[in-house]
Amino acid sequence: MEESLLADVVAAALKAGADAAEAVGAQRAALGINVRLGKLEEVEREESRDLGLRVFVGKQQATVSGSDVSAEARAKLVERAVAMARLAPEDPYSGLADAKRLARGPFPDLDLYDGAEPTPEQLEDRARAAEDAGRAMPRISNSDGGSASTSSGQWRLVTSGGFSGVHRASSYSIGVSVIASDGDEMEGGYDGRTTRWQADLPTPESIGAEAGRRGAARLGARKIASTTAPVIFENRLAMSLIGPLIGAISGPAIARGNSFLKDKLHSQVFSKGIHVTDDPHKVRGLGSSPFDDEGVANRAWNIIDDGVLTTWLMNSSSARQLGLETTGHASRGLAGPPGVSTTNLTLLPGTKTQAELMAQAGTGVLITSMFGPSLNGNTGDWSVGCAGFWFEGGVLAYPVAEITVAGNLIDIYARLIPGSDLEFRGSANAPSILVDGLAIAGK
Hints:
Elements: H1 3-15, E1 20-36, E2 39-57, E3 60-66, H2 71-87, H3 120-135, E4 140-159, E5 164-182, E6 185-195, H4 204-217, E7 227-233, H5 239-248, H6 251-256, E8 276-278, E9 301-305, E10 308-309, H7 316-322, E11 330-331, E12 339-340, E13 345-347, H8 354-361, E14 364-375, E15 381-392, E16 395-408, H9 409-415, E17 417-418, E18 428-429, E19 433-441
InterPro entries: Metalloprtase-TldD/E_C, Metalloprtase-TldD/E_cen_dom, Metalloprtase-TldD/E_N, PmbA, TldD/PmbA_N, TldD/PmbA_sf
Protein name: TldD/PmbA family protein
Family: Belongs to the peptidase U62 family.
């Protein structure tokens, strides 16, 4: 969306009585192909152009959004936003980001946009190749389908505080879901990848083969008795263990006082040697951006440094409430005020492979799927439904299902050991994680 259009919207808001305003323009184009059992099942194409406006009247604020960007629609959008702000309750911490914290160009080139435009036929070929490879694996009897997609988007922010910035990104995806069976037993297996650049995708055949392998490996799953044992979370889902950390150290949670880590700033939360980083400027990163969603200059952070919690994650509003400065973690869509989120979050790897972690643990559970997590945000008590593999003598013994793993995250974080098998598969990544002695509820 053009800078001049957003600047006109901001100017119109000020003329209508707003004391400050920011306009966001988002454009997106996407194409997705789904196949099942070798036949084309769905073609989905999307093109959107949307506008969001946030205005301030004193300490009152309102946000509105719409997909009609005609001059008449923009005028109505401005009128509605200012009228809503005048009726809103006061928020003493609201307002645009401080001018001194704004990012100034030229912005870093993060190599987020490829520009390659695969045809529908090419996407269909990829989806079919992935599914064919999955269906060809031993013990695979059926398929939920293969998919391939591409998308590109642009996001622009203009504020009355003097900021104007734009960034665009592309993404390419392949995924496949197959069904393994043995008699009446059936288990699903999935694999998929998304990258910023098309050339960085694995081959469809490798993705399909991995989906098939994962499905077949789950056949013969047993229920186990409740016990306490070491638990290893495989790298694909290990970040689910770290995710609650981010919610617990977000500025809004700290300001409300409902965080199990509210008294842990600058304290030893993890053991020495553990590092968790967040880097918005990672080249081709799936969470990368040259500035945050308030236009604030962002940078890499060592959130956990040698086990010590170094910072809260803040946008401008939560920083003002805490008497601190924003950390450049503002995140927003077209509607609503900014929240807080990370960009490219990474638990740095240790030195032991997953096999070596199993050898160290001896006997326990390797978790390969998780569902239905539950967290008490005030205490850190956490539980999650799981399936995976029981291992004995450091070697996989048999698949297990219908178990629940539980513990307190303060205790878990203090004892976890990261493996060496870090893979960058999304915007939050971790190696396999070993936690010694977790409660496992089974039959």
